[in-house]
Amino acid sequence: MVKLICTLTDHSDDVNYCAFSSSYLATCSLDKSIRLYSLSSFDELPYSPLRGHTYAVHCCCFSPFGNLLASCSTDGNIVLWETHNGLKLAVLEHPCRHPVRICRFSPNSTYLASGAADGSVNLWNVQSFKVYRSGSVKDGSLVACAFAPDASFFVTGSSCGDLTVWDETMKCLYNEKAHDLGVTCCDLSSKLASGNKQDVKYFLMASSGQDSTIKIWLISLADHTGLELKCKYTLKEHTAPVLACAFSCDGQILVSGSVDKRVMIFETNTGNILHILTQHTRYVTTCAFAPDMPLFATGSMDKSVNIWQFEPKQLLKERSAIEEPKIFADRWSEEEVSSWLCTHGLQDVVEIFKRNNIDGKELLSLTKESLADDLKIESLGLRSKVLRSIEELRTEMKTACLGIPDEFLCPITRELMREPVIAADGYSYEKEAMEKWITEKRHSSPMTNLPLQRLILTPNRTLKMAINRWLETQPKYNEKQSP
User: Which residue has the higher pLDDT, 171 or 318?
Assistant: First the structure.
């Protein structure tokens, strides 16, 4: 079920990294250049290659909305590029001019994290292009970085083998000796992992190392106990150091690349090998999944990038089982309602719903009165939690039908943002909704419930531009909003 559809051979030296946005593929190399390709045809863009580094380019990554591309190099610089025209937007210089090995945008586009050869890690403010916070590890170079999907923390990996978990204030939340001979890569799944505790968030992470292994980790985050990191299992199928690993967008598949010249595709839940690809003739240095297409790319020291089409049957089945009910919840069976309750931490009412034969249509019609009088749910807190989840489901159905990207929705109103602002918690909100939130004396984050360190709201111009561009392509949405 994996097919090689394209091979790119434009770089004149080792390919170090590749990254996808929803429209482009970016690759970078020891040849000091970054190349950009259109995903519609895999033709190189007219303004590619991008040249601005004086030494090897180690990493490149797109911002969440794809409008910016960051690249970092041995020259000690991070360059921000505008993806639609290839123009240089800013150059961020490492404070001590040490080689920068890795860079990553936060999921909310607020920060760019960078790791350097001296073990330093910097959080750059993407609006001001200045260092927001700095930290460092004791030993080794920083060579890997990944953000949690909700931006609550990020992880760095070092050449001495440590994985370090940081919050946005650069407080070290956890440190783990993960790979004896050094970490080479790490990636966090964009989908939250399932767990059996209602008040805990679970994240799935993969790390690869010079010890020829891949480790799958479960990260748990709770307000009362903090953060914990546990290794679920170790994959030992590669016969040489593993240089790269990446999750598919749904978190069900993991791809890895190694010094053994092989690309391996694993099923995340079981660790079973699904495919082994042997087309590269030298070390496989990088791999990445496209966000909106069944594609992934692998890059190698053979100076090539391979583009693969990947659509396993099991993913198609699971995707239809997950996505369609979200839009057509009114068609759910009683069993699907029970499953939905469990995934939202509402196991306590499953039996009540079953006894009353609640299907999807009846679920969406429930009110606080029917929960109390008809279903006899005594706990006010539990009734409120059920109602909140149902309201979120109704909103999801509405926005799914309109096709609004989730990142364009205000977390408070769950409606399309028109004047997005960034609060002190790093999240973006509709300006009016957040101002109302603050004036009602709630000085805590709507997303994390932690105190807001300051009440200043900064316009998120990057997000507003992305929303406006999306609106220009959505005449149907604009018609629906007309009086």
Answer: 171
CA 153, CA 174: separation in Å to the nearest integer?
A: 11
Closest CA to 127 of 169, 75, 92, 176: 92
CA–CA gap between residue 44 and residue 39 (Å, rounded): 10
Query: Which residue did the predictor score with more confidence, 396 or 13?
Result: 13
The Cα–Cα gap between 194 and 203 comes to: 8
DSSP bridge pairs for 296: 289, 308
pLDDT at residue 319, rounded to an integer = 38
User: Which token pair is 336?
Assistant: 């699907």
In percent, how much of the chain has pLDDT > 70? 89
- Residue 445 CA to residue 433 CA, distance in Å, equals 13
C-alpha 266/C-alpha 52 separation (Å) is 37
Assess whether pLDDT exceeds 70 at residue 480: no
Residues 368, 385: contact at Cβ < 8 Å?
no
Is-above-0.85 flag for pTM?
no
Of 31-45, 130-144, 186-200, which gets the smallest average pLDDT?
Answer: 186-200
239 vs 279: CA distance, rounded Å: 17
Count CB neighbours of 453 within 10 A: 12
Q: What per-residue confidence (pLDDT) applies to 441?
A: 63
Asked if 222 and 243 count as a contact pair (C-beta separation under 8 A), the reply is: no
200-to-174, 195, 218, 444, 450 alpha-carbon distances in Å: 16, 8, 12, 19, 15
3-state DSSP of the chain: CEEEEEEECCCCCCEEEEEECCCEEEEEECCCEEEEEECCCCCECCCCCEECCCCCEEEEEECCCCCEEEEEECCCEEEEEECCCCCEEEEEECCCCCCEEEEEECCCCCEEEEEECCCEEEEEECCCCEEEEEEECCCCCEEEEEECCCCCCEEEEECCCEEEEECCCCCEEEEEECCCCCEEEEEECCCCECCCCCCEEEEEEEEEECCCCEEEEEEEEECCCEEEEEEEEEECCCCCCEEEEEECCCCCEEEEEECCCCEEEEECCCCCEEEEECCCCCCEEEEEECCCCCEEEEEECCCCEEEEEECCHHHHHHHHHHHHHHHCHHHCCHHHHHHHHHHCCCHHHHHHHHHCCCCHHHHHHCCHHHHHHCCCCCCHHHHHHHHHHHHHHHHHHHHHHHCCCHHHECCCCCCECCCEEECCCCCEEEHHHHHHHHHCCCCECCCCCCECCCCCCEECHHHHHHHHHHHHCCHHHHHHHCC
Q: What is the pLDDT of residue 361?
A: 84
